[in-house]
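Troubleshooting log. The previous structure file for this entry was overwritten by mistake, so regenerating from the original sequence record. Sequence copied from the archived sheet and checked twice against the printout by T.R.
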Amino acid sequence: MTERMTAADLIAAQGKGPRVDREGPIHKSILEYVLTVLPRRAVVHHSPNELNMAGDAKSRAIAISKAKALGMVPGWPDLEIMIDGQAYFLEIKAESGTVSKDQIAVISRLRVAGCRIQVVNSIDGARRALQEWGLIP
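Regenerated output below.
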């Protein structure tokens, strides 16, 4: 009887390790911090822009097209903060993360629209942004 390999075993056998989520834990800790320090009247929201990219090229193209038709904006920041009629955004990156071309374009558009946005990779970075914006002391 042949031994079956899991997907993780197959990836490891090909010399590639499993994908490690470096940004997710940072995102969760920043979200928890922001929800703790902001006044209750603040609305904090995450707009997931991730798509399931499984399947063939045609299936992926259809998924992307549908998501864009429904309002998905590639490069949209991770966290939106609405308070007192103002919009603030945090783009969260892992320590070694870089901002994509789509993210750079969206950051520029949001700033032109009068929004405040900061790229952060830690709770300290988020704290500095919130202080700079006058949202916390």
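Strands lie at 43-46, 79-83, 86-92, 116-120. Archived copy saved in two places this time.
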